[in-house]
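step 3/5: co-fold with magnesium ion
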Amino acid sequence: MLSLQDSVGNLAGVGPKRVEDLKTLGIFTVEDLLLYFPTRYDSYEIQNPNQAVDQQKLTLQGTVMSEPVIARFGYKRNRLSFRLMVDTEVVMVTFFNQPYLKDKVELSKDIAVYGKWDAVHKRLAGTKIVNITTNQNSVDAVYSTNKSMKQTTLRKFIKTAFTAYESVIASLLPPKLIQQYKLIERKDMIREMHFPSDDTQAAEARRTAAYEEFFLFQLRLQAIKMENQQKNGISILYRNDELKDFIHALPYELTKAQQRVINEICRDLRRPIQMNRLLQGDVGSGKTVVAAVAMYATITAGLQAAIMAPTEILAAQHAQNFAKMFEGLHVNIGLLTGSMTAKQHRELTAQIKNGSINLIVGTHALIQDSVEYANLGLIVTDEQHRFGVNQRQKLREKGEDPDVLAMTATPIPRTLAITAYGEMDVSVIDELPAGRKTIKTSWLKTNQVGVAWEKVRQELEQGAQTYVVTPLIEQSETLDVQNAQDLFEELQEYFAPQYQVGLLHGRMPNDEKDAIMEAFKANEIQVLVSTTVIEVGVDVKNASLMVVYDADRFGLAQLHQLRGRVGRGERQSYCILIADPKNQVGIQRMQTMVETTDGFVVAQRDLELRGSGDVLGLKQSGVPEFKVGDPVGELKMLQIAKSDAADLLLTPDWDTQTENLPLVEYLTIRKLQTHFD
Ligand code: ADP
Ligand code: MG
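step 4/5: write tokens
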């Protein structure tokens, strides 16, 4: 029997080499291939230039009015041009670097040209001559491909797959919803996405695909949530008196917001269900101490607690912090990272297994299968947005279903947070500790960089320290970015001999990184030049200035994170962005940073400024990736899909009804798949 889960290798014409090529695009099964949707469509429908919008891509048909002329400039570059009479309008058509098209352009003959329309000068920058007889009224799907797979080959494979499997494509969406929203059947949706009959049908298909994607995403999240709620978790009966003593002994008073979220967490810990809570709080809002309280509570109940950080530097910093915070208490800390020797790893995991270590700090080495826990009660993840839904689920399955607290400094707007992390409960720290001074942010052009160095010197003279961040570590031929190494040497010279400059980058061995970080913390280094390895979490209170080179190469969320590295103590702090943004969006990003330090405002602006195609950027900001749907522009649809998914899951016996069987099967397969990654 044919199944959409068949390997693409089952398709006629797809041999082992092609199977490998398809893998590079993330395509393994026939379904993957069928759901590999085009990134855009080129429409060859003949249009009237009077109704066309400036800069629009379109096809014009007309009579060739002048002999085509080729102008050559330099090696390999040339331009073919001719005049075309479209209705009563004369249009100038140009083609760059396609001189061979000259043969297809004959005086007095009719042709159709596809290209970009310049309405002001009545010019068409052609990309293609359209075959009038075969291409008329058609739309071509264009896919994102790579070196090992040509556009035409991919299109052919999709065609083969669709023809062979069309009969087994069942709609996953409940018929009721398809009717209610006037969606189309899955089979038609897939056909129209790849081989659209016309623009209207293509739009309908896209709407169905987006809704289906949102609905399935929500269904998975909520199915996980329901299953988790049914499972019995550990009831962590912590010692309230000991917890109170610990909180009183802290060197500062907790903020109202910190107290509130600690209460929410402690309530979850006691309940015999598995906690699954997201803790949101802007940079510097004091999430670490909240985690410390939750972990200490767990330890007083005689259980182990673990905290997972995205980088080794952060893990090491946490270990150090906690060692100080828990001094004199019955807390034994172990630091588990990927860069330990086999012997160290063996000794440490033995102590974790026998329970003599009760607070485990580490990177994702923590959730590897080789690590066994004696009695794990709570896992905390720091900087949650670095981890995906599957890793989140893997955490929960460690040991005896421990409680999970996920912390993130990415202040995605609450509506979106609830939808993106639909399987979790959300707590928010919406208040900074008292006495924090607002970080003053300014934006300089590259030619004003001297001003920045003077500011650095001023701060150093006050006894404060400075971060300098650059985007890339090695000179790259294609990107004109500041090189951290060069900059480091330049600054060393500039500040010698009074001040020490250090360099930190991702390619350095870990012990070297640690040594540099230690030296900076100890104020043996005053200026730290770094790539974004310091992006998250690092806490040095004496640092008062953050200088970011080529700031327009960073996303807003990242810039906000970077700025959060300063202003963590009593000092008035500053952030200087150095950038020559090339477009309006870049300029607005810089202005946003200058205007506000509120992470939620930054996040909202960030979402507004991004195009929906900016998937990578969305990932950065903690919003999950969707192939078709746009979780920002189509948030409404995402919310509707969320409540539809919830309604379905609450319908008695929904999963035994015949019409829902394809959906049940889909959920089962996805669930199995989460165990592979
Ligand atoms: P983040 O939420 O960005 O992880 P941290 O937990 O690193 O922030 O806290 C930032 C700084 O604020 C730390 O130096 C911490 O000691 C301090 N801090 C946390 N809570 C308070 C508080 N209630 N009052 C004063 N300082 C606090
Ligand atoms: Mg932190």
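step 5/5: annotate
The radius of gyration is 29 Å.
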